[in-house]
Design a protein that fits this description.
Distance between the termini: 59 Å
Number of helices: 2
Shape: elongated
Strand content: under 5%
Helix content: 25-40%
Length: 87
């Protein structure tokens, strides 16, 4: 553990100063090892940000959401009917 670090350099306090403490600015934030319980979640965040380069493509998020939605709504169901457009 290398102490505190600041990952949100775009956030500011009400007085206009960065919310990051000056002593944190040059601290490298820790990364999770593959055996850490939060590793999978941190990898997902990187993937949703478009790693290795951050971008505005939300495709990875929407694909994961689509798969999760299918699992959540169809889990154990076999004879589902489509929703009608109108009553």
């Amino acid at each position: 553990e290398n102490g505190n670090c600041c990952t949100r350099t775009d956030l500011f306090n009400t007085n206009g100063e960065s919310h990051c403490r000056p002593e944190w600015e040059n601290n490298q934030c820790s990364v999770y090892d593959e055996d850490h319980p939060r590793w999978e979640a941190s990898e997902a965040v990187k993937r949703y940000l478009g790693a290795p380069r951050v971008n505005d493509d939300n495709g990875n998020f929407y694909e994961a959401f689509r798969m999760a939605w299918l699992k959540a709504t169809m889990n154990g169901m076999h004879d589902l009917k489509p929703v009608m457009d109108s009553c």
